[in-house]
Amino acid sequence: MSSSTAALSRTLKTITLTKINELEKQRKAYAHSKNAILKVADEAPHQRERVLRLLEGVEGLNQISSSPSADLSNIRRWLFQSHYDSSVPENMLNDFEAQLRAQLNIRTRRLDLGRLYSRLLTEWLDSSNAIEEEPVIEETECLDESFEVIEKDRLKQLTEKFESVVFTPLETDPVEIHEYLDSLFQGDIGDKTLTRLREATHNKGVHILRHKTVFDESTIKWCLEGLLANDLLRDDKKAILQEFLQDEVARKEICDVLNMKFVDLDNWTWDVGPDGLPVEQRRQLNGKYRIMMDEDVLDAIFLHYIGMSWSVGMKSILCEIGDRPGFWKHHVNIPQKVKDCRRYFLGEYRFGEEAGGSVEKARQDMYRKDFFLSQLPSSVTEGSGGYDDEDDAESDGWDAVPSNPGKKSPKQVKQQLLRIMATEVELQKSINGRVAVVQSDFQWFGTSISHSSIYAVLRFVGMDEKWISFFRKFLEAPLNMGPVSDQDEQVRIRKRGVPMAHALEKFFGELVLFFMDLAVNQEAAMLLYRFHDDLWLVGEPERCTRAWETMQQFSTVMGLELNKSKTGSVFLTKEDELSYEDSELVARLPVGPVAIGFLNLDPESTDWVIDQKQVDAHVRQLSKQLAKAPNVLSWVQTWNSCIGRFFSHTFGEPANCFGRAHVDGILETYKRMQDDIFPGSNACKYLKGLIEERFSVTDIPDAFIFLPESLGGLGVRNPFISPFLVRDNVCESPSKLMEGFLKREAEAYHTCKREFEELSPQGRKRRLRIIYTDEYGEGDPSAVLEDADTFMSMKEFISVRESTSPELHSAWEELMEVPHKKEIVASSEVMQSLRSLTFSQPELRGNGMESEIRWILQMHEKELTEKCGGTSIVEKNLLPLGILTILRKKKVAWQMVL
To answer: Organism's domain of life (predicted)?
Structure first.
């Protein structure tokens, strides 16, 4: 741990212990005052006097306490009335006495729970620095086998595999690559597009080199912040970057040095001596290890600037290329002849509706926004990591805030990908009767990509040789793999792959894979949904087959290897048996299952179902990890990390395209998980039992387990609440939704046909004249319409439905929709508490947690009111929220590779 980080931790620990001591002082002082009040009351000669003494004692305590208290003003008046009026019943006095004693006990319980919280924090603080990191337990391919794999042997295998790949060059044929890429730019439009690509790339290189003092106050800050946001550097070097951010003098000195490096770019080399760049196995949050270079901080800043400059520039260039009219193949714009025909038969109103939007346009827009070159940043301030980054920016607790609200996180993109696959399967199956889905990815893509392929692509797009020379030095890093045998050199030059977690890693990767996106589009006229190097196709089987063969050809030319273990396809049809033609298509598609996360596409039912075998394996591992938690708060953090961050995403976010059966499947799976981890019990009972065993504290409210820390609870996530919030609003059956579309489409056809047939001959001539007569009064409708008096057939009406039908567009959007939460009906007290909480923590409103907290507060309102006097458990000012924030930010590393 860096000195600055350690000092911060020591300071927070001191503050925490101060708050704990203050809470204990208040608890003891209150206990003394309470006992004195009870003693005086119990010595009273009669009940009326006893109630009066209790009332005076409680009022006195309320004046010095910030705890919620009941309104006692009427008790004094009615008590005084009873002195004269015998009609005041005795049982009312009994109620007054019970209410006052309960008020005294509420404050006691709140302070006792605060003390319990303090003891839990003390337990965590005492053990957090003493715990050694648990060895990673890797999941074997066979889930029935033991998970116990010796750590050092696994790391040794990983290192040996890495060495066998990166130090062995894979020479591809630059001429073949050039010819293949050139074939994607056919015709006059293709030639002009390629020329524009090369000009723009060359100009970008010139522009980057134009200024000799590129590093200034603004530049150095976004470089430092970008590096702090990714996993390139170790924590101790990130601490140095943090110090740079605070030190203006240091930043100026760094800018001077980096500008000198930039002026002498031709002679840049890695800033290492004869020992080369140290290489280390760095553990990621998900339990996997990555082979990372331990590079100099100045080199990291310098390369981040260049990587981000090229990434942002190339994204702009390639997006412009993709948007050039006539180049990117799609079905948004149907031929003018078809438009005119539909306008004539369907009328202006319907024609206007069809021009308003379509499924094909919605697909293209979503693809451009969320998938096309999505790994390249749009601005230098976004930051950039590597292809193997995990999305760990989101907190596992109640205060998750998206790091960039304007851009979908990787988790959100994956959920969107799932919805696209499920929606397209349902849509194509309903309107065409058949659909294919293909999935694949590349084996060790960033680590194994051929350098010769990268150079060939750079030259093809018009990159200047000066830049290619620089990139060659970057790629051919001198790596020091540590102790080796006498026969081997300790420092070896990398000959394959891209250094991980650099901005340049995604620059090279996205530039190469852009041409696979383009090849699939040009050869099969469809979209390749790509996230990093994960590849997805869905649509008409013939097109999917052509696209898959194009992907294989691209991989062969570029020297890439498709990962067979993650490659598969599903061919779905309404017919019981495949036709001969369909069987031929199936034979050309890859063999293997289709799955995203723990959702598998079942070829029999055509539903997306949860893979219970994988769930069981991970639940067994979770049980082991929970059992090893050294303290209660670590147990809570492990549970929340699993339930809140992992399973909630791998099961798939509920959406209309999955139907209500998917939500019920999630709930059933969570029930099975709970029964497996806590036989005959649940997380709440287990934790209460654990606390009783360790701290001898009983009578803990259930709300203490589930409420967020800011309300005095442990913040344990209840996995059942989130599905229940949306269940009632999820489409019951996506197939019925599509049946509704087909019915509406048929009704629209018959309406348009009836309206046309009711047109007078003059009305039809007027339509012809409006559509087919130009400004000079000339036109020839017969060249387009063979029979202007016979309405188009249903087959013609639906032939371009994906490009025109407003009914299909509406159905597609409804299938893609994530249902709104159906809020629990809450009392005014709960709503007031929630408003107060979200005012002090506005981040709760943006991540869906507000609805869960509302559910919990309302569910436990009666218990909270009776035992704690309100909807919070402990005074917020006494809670050490600073140390709790650090606890939540300390992510839980899975002890199984997920």
So the answer is: Eukaryota
Choice among 4-8, 33-37, 40-44, 145-149 with the minimum mean pLDDT: 145-149
pTM: 0.88
Q: To which residue do tokens 């081997």 refer?
A: 488
Adjacent-strand bridge partners of 278: 480
| Cα pseudo-dihedral 96, 101, 104, 109, rounded to 10 | -130
- Burial class, 689, CB count within 10 angstroms (exposed 0-12 / middle 13-18 / buried 19+): middle
Write the DSSP symbol of residue 565: G
Residue 834 has pLDDT above 60, yes or no: yes
569 CA to centre of own chain: 25
Q: What distance in Å separates the CA atoms of residue 861 and residue 857, rounded to the nearest whole number?
A: 6
Q: How many residues does the chain have?
A: 898
Give the H or E element holding residue 600: strand 599-601
Q: What is the C-alpha separation between 248 and 67, in angstroms, rounded?
A: 47
CA-based end-to-end distance of the chain: 27
Cα(717)–Cα(488) distance, integer angstroms: 52
Which pLDDT does position 870 carry in this prediction?
Answer: 82
Report pLDDT digits (tens) over 3-26. Answer: 444 544 566 667 777 877 888 888
- H/E/C letters for each residue in 168-228? CCCCCCHHHHHHHHHCCCCHHHHHHHHHHHHHHHHHHHHHHHHCCCCCCHHHHHHHHHHHH
Per-position DSSP letters for 456-472, written without gaps between them: HHHHHTT--HHHHHHHH
Torsion sign, CA atoms 447, 452, 456, 458: positive
